[in-house]
Each structure stands twice: as C-alpha cells, then as structure tokens.
Amino acid sequence: MEDVTRVRFGVLGPLTAQDADGAPLDLKGPRHRAVLARLIVARRRVVPVARLVDDLWDEPPAGAVGAVQTFVGALRRALEPGRPPRAPARLLVTDGPGYALRAAPDAVDAWRFEATVERAPALPPAEAVAQLEQALALWRGPAYAEAGGAQAGAVQAGGALAGGAEWARADRARLAELRLQAVERRAGALLALGRAARAVPDLRAHLTDHPWREEAWRLLALAQYRAGSQGDALEVLRDARSVLAGRLGLDPGAGLRRLEADILAQAPELDGGGERDRAGTGGTTSTPGTATPVEAAAHVWARAAEAYDRTLAATARARLEGTVGLMRNLAVTGGEGLRTAARHRVEAIAAAEEFGDPELTARVIGAYDVPAVWTRSDEPPLAARVVAAAERALAALPAGAEAARCRLLATIALEMRGTREERGPEAARAAEDLARHLGDPTLLAFALNGRFMQSCRRAGQAPERDAIGAELVGLAARHGLVTFEVLGHLVRLQSACASADFTAADAHAAAADRLAERHELPLVGVFTEWYAALRLAAHGRTREAESAYRAAAERLDGAGMPGLQQGLLPLALLCLRLAEGGAVPPVDLAEDWGPYRPWAEPFAHLATGHRGRARGALRALPEPPADLLYEALCGLEAFLAQELDDQPVLSRARSRLRPAAGELAGAGSGLLTLGPVTRYLDAPTDR
Asked: Are residues 118 and 222 in the same domain?
C-alpha cells in the first residue's frame, strides 16, 4: 500500500497533486478540484457536506449532496489508487458530518511557505536568505488561482464554484500578504549580510507592483545608502513621498521620515549597526529615547507587532481574536479605517467558522463591539452575512456560554438596524436581559447599543432613546468605557434636539467633543458638526444653516459612513426650505438622493406642475425605514398629501406622526428638521 502521507499538494498557483515519486495525479474536473481546494483551505479540519454544497454552488442543484459524494469518491481513487476495495480512506477521510483532508503538515506548498516565513526572523541572516528564496520559489501564480478572478468565473459558468469562491478569499489574501513580507524579509537579511547591492533590483521590482509598501521603500533607500549612493537613497525617499501622497493621500510614516533625517545626517548606525537584529522584520533604525512622542509610540507599536508576529503561529486562534481587536480600534478612526475594518471583519468571521468552534466564532463576532450611533447600515449585504454567522453560532453554542450568547444577540440587534424584521428587537431585548443578569458593564453597554438601534420603529420614541443614552453615559463613565460614553452623549444630543432643548443638546455635544479630542475619536466631530447646522436651521437662520450643512457634508465625505452620507445633504436642504415656508421648493433628481429618492420624486413633479405624477409617486411611497429619519420622512409625506389634497395618504401620515406631536420633526436624528410636528398634524391654513 502506497504511503499517502507523501502525497504533495500545490495551491500557490493552479491546484496540483503529486504522488510519492513526484508523478502528477489526475484531479479530474473543475468540480473535483474545487472540493479538494476547499478541503485544503480547511487545514485538516472537517468541512460539513452542507457547507461544501453552499460553497460550491450559488444555487445548489437537486442532488447536490450526492454530487459532492461522487466528487469525493473520484478524488479518493486519484489520491490513493492502491487502496483495496472497501478499505477506509486514509487521506481524504469521512469524519462526522463531512470530510477532511488529513495531509501531512509539510504536504501543501502554502503550509511550507507559511512556516518558513514565520521562522525566518529568528534565523541567522544567511540561513534566512536561503530559506526565504526556496519558499518564494514555490509560487507558480496567485494562490488558489482556480478559485478567483477570471478562472473562477469560467468555472462558475460550468456550475462548480459559487460567488467567485468566497471560501478561498481570506486564505488568498493572507498568503499574498505573507509573500510580500517574505520578499521584504529576504531583503532585510541581505542587508544584514552586507549585500546591499543585491537587494536593490528585487526591491525595485517589488515596489513596481506594490508601491504602498512603506517597509519596502525603507529597505530600498537603506540599500542604496549602503551601496554608496546617498543621492539615490534620498531620491528613493522622495519617490516614496510622492507615490504615497499621490495614490493614497498619505504622508510617509515615522520610519521613512526618521530614515531620511538619518541619511542627511549620515548617522553611523546606517552603516549596519543594529540592523542584524531587525533583518527582514520591518524594524526601525532609531531608539525611542531620541524620537518625538509620536515616533516613540510608533516604535513601541512596531516592536510589539514584531513580537506578536513571531510568537503566534499563523493559524493560532489567539491571532484571529487579536486581529478583531485591531479592527475594532481601526473602525473608530473613520474613513478608510472604518471601511477596511468592516470588510476584514467578515473575513475574520469566516476564518473563525473554519475552526468549527462556535464559542470561538462567537468571540470573534462579539469582539467587534464598536459603538454605533447611526441607525442605517453602511453595507447591508455585509451586515446580513454577519447576522447569518451570528445566528449559526448562536444555534451551536453549548449551554452555559451566556456571555457569548449575549454578544451574539447584541450583534444581531445592531446589524439588523433600519429593518422591520421582528428578530431585531427580539434579539435586543434578549441581549439586554442577559447582560443585566450577568452584571457585566461592558456587555450591558453593548446590549444597550443594540436596543438603541431598534428604537426607531415608530415615531415618538425619543424619550426612550434618551433614557438609553442616560444609562450609557452613567454606566460608561463609571467603568471607563469611553467610546460608549461618547455614544451616550450623542444619543442624548439627538433626543434633546427632538424636544428642542438646545441647552441640553449643546452640553452633550461639548461633552462628546471633549472625549473625542482626548481619546482621538475623529468620527465624533462629524455628528457634532451636523448638529451645529441643525441648530441654526431650528432657529430660522436659513442662509447660515445651508452653508453649515454644505460644510458638514464635505467633512462627511470620506468618513467611511455611506449609510449616513448617501442622500443626506439634499434631504437636509429640502427640509430646510420646507421649514422656512413658502412655495414648494424645486428638487433636482440628478442629485444623489440615495435611499431618499422616493420621497424626492413627488416634490420634483409637484414643483414642475405635474400634479398627477406627483400624486402617483406619493401613493407609491413605502413606510419609511425604521431609523432616525422616520419622523422626517413621515413629515415629507404629510406635507405632500396636504399640497395634493390626498386625504387617505394624509390620514396615514398623520397617524404615523401623532406619537411625536410635541417634537421637532426629524430633529431626533441630530442632523436636520422640518420644524414642529404639529405643523403637519393640523389642517393647512395657508394653502
């Protein structure tokens, strides 16, 4: 019987398999190859048959389970041709509800590559260069090449791969990043050996394809300097500055700035002192004792990250959980940080599910307890995927895992914001009950955030939200939960605006801004600046309010919150005109109205005299989403119904608005207002 432990697999390019003698094995068709690649991604863990079906087809055909079993049977015959009939498979095995590939730890080229890159920093430079070169030679193309891009599309057309093989996306991205690190670590090791000139051409080629890699720019400049060309080294740093600013809008980091200063000063340590300890690890060339506070912090971060990277294996669960913590911190920076965190969060959840451990999945999902203040999702498809994963983990949690259960329920409540599904408020109530029972202040703050997200299902709920905000402020202040304390102040600001209590709103805005400045939370200013514009609008200072709204919209641009940004400026300006009174304002449908376009269309028809079209568009309006602009959109509907004398629609709009009779319409958003709700409840007097 052949030794199946010596079968070798390649995924750093098109999928391959070789027997113990190096002869290629026939992996059959694209569906068979997709099954094998999916099992390799799972890293010896079991993949349930149901999961394989979901991963291989967007719309599974009838008999999909049987088809998977057929593919597995054919693969077993290819991988173990000498296995006697009815003898159990030893490589592609059945285990419980699914299958696993029990390949040896060194049987997959990607696994060998990762192991080499991980241990390279601890090796002597000469050995590191040799091993990294061998590892880089394993690459024959993009990792899992048949599971992505054009090839995946072609295979999908044949019915094999679903959705561009999402199951391979995280592994492909991780391996691609490790490959870039390997190139840079090899260059660092060459510098440590005094072979600077040899490192230059490889680094130049590397930067041609990956110009955002600051560590590669640093190494190239240092290599040029050590090769005897100070001018070329400075030119490299100028190129780095130009590329980073021109393509990414970023200034060079502390490492590049410090290197430039050291080159200009011809610092002795640039000749090689101390570089050996940092070969290929992305270390810096200065000590924190001579750096500015910002540079010292960057130095500490870099060294801690190096230690973390060396200490934990690439597949370690702790690394996965730690990554979510980094993404949580990244999210509160706004802009690209927020967008990046949202995308990578879904990848982290998918990676956690690969372990088949629902408690790990629950921790990864629940660790992203980033306070949310806006009640419309930025990326609904991603939110739906998070909810689905949370529901799966919730169903599989063992008895007694109550803290994990609480975090999952709170996550569901948060991610279902703006929808009208009953699961959202149900999850919010259950999370809050569990958190109060457990007596954990952090869990309670997270659960209260979920309840806040579900508190916009009808008009007039500002007092309820104010009570949530008050509890958040007190709870967070007592337990040092700064971001939730900020959230509480912003929630209370919104509620104070609804009741036109601008003295209280001012106090909460100032408190939120103070905390934001002290703890570097730039997104807070987005909300307080919009509040300042609302305040002007509520006091009838229309011209100043319009300028303030436009300035606030510019700040919102690039903040990474499309769920807040889309359509908000034209909506705010329309509400400003209506609150001012007078004729129906003109509406330009060429503007980006985002989700508010249905409410803008009747105004556009009405302003151009097409009352029939306006009435048709009015009657087609859906109930507004369950978010903080509910009262504003109901107010627009009531205004239109008054103008068009459509009594059934007017009656419906007034019925929805009546619970908020004492409020400023829409002001509970903290962003805009249509004026007093009573204006839209009373019979028209001047129309």
From this structure: no
Show the 3-state SS of 140-185. Answer: CCCCCHHHCHHHHHHHHHCCCCCCCCHHHHHHHHHHHHHHHHHHHH
Task: Please give the structure tokens belonging to residue 249.
Answer: 């809008």
Residue 290 has pLDDT above 50, yes or no: no
Q: Are 302 and 334 within one domain? A: no
Four-CA torsion 635, 639, 645, 650, nearest 10 degrees: 10
Answer whether residue 321 shows pLDDT above 90: no
**pLDDT higher than threshold 50 for residue 228:** yes
Q: Which long-range contacts (CB under 8 A, 24 or more apart) does 205-209 make?
A: 206/180
Same domain? For 287 and 346 the reply is no
Tell me if 431 is assigned to some domain: yes
Q: Which of 33, 19, 10, 15 is nearest to 83 (CA)?
A: 19
Q: Which residue range is the domain that position 334 belongs to?
A: 317-524
Residues 236 and 344 in one domain: no
pLDDT for 405 equals: 96
Would you call 105 exposed, middle or buried from its count of C-beta atoms within 10 A (0-12, 13-18, 19+)?
Answer: exposed
User: 209: exposed, middle or buried (C-beta count within 10 Å: 0-12, 13-18, 19+)?
Assistant: exposed
* Amino acid 311: pLDDT: 54
Helices (H), 439-501: 441-453, 462-479, 482-498
Structure tokens at 531: 């509040």
Main-chain dihedrals φ then ψ at residue 227, nearest 5 degrees: -80, 0
Condensed to tens digits (0 to 9), the pLDDT of residues 176-207 reads 889 999 999 999 999 998 898 888 888 988 88
Task: Please indicate, yes or no, if residue 270 is contained in any of the structural domains.
Answer: yes
Same domain, 330 and 303: no
Residue with tokens 């007034």: 654
Domain boundary among 150, 167, 184: 167
What's the CATH number where 82 sits? 1.10.10.10
Separation of alpha carbons 446 and 409, rounded Å: 10
Geometric angle at alpha carbon 121, from 118 and 122, rounded to 5°: 100
pLDDT digits (tens, 9 = 90+) for 134-164: 999 999 888 888 765 333 333 333 333 444 4
Same domain, 290 and 338: no
Q: In this structure, what token pair is assigned to residue 246? A: 């021109």
Closest to 179 in 3D by CA, of 342, 12, 413: 12
The stretch 340-345 carries a mean pLDDT of: 73
Residues 266 and 341 placed together within one structural domain of the fold: no
| End-of-domain residue from the set 248, 274, 307 | 307
Domain count, the chain: 3
Please give the residue that has the higher pLDDT: either 156 or 448: 448
- Residues 161 and 259 placed together within one structural domain of the fold: no
pTM over 0.90: no
561 falls within a domain: no
Q: What are phi and psi of 10, to 5 degrees?
A: -125, 125
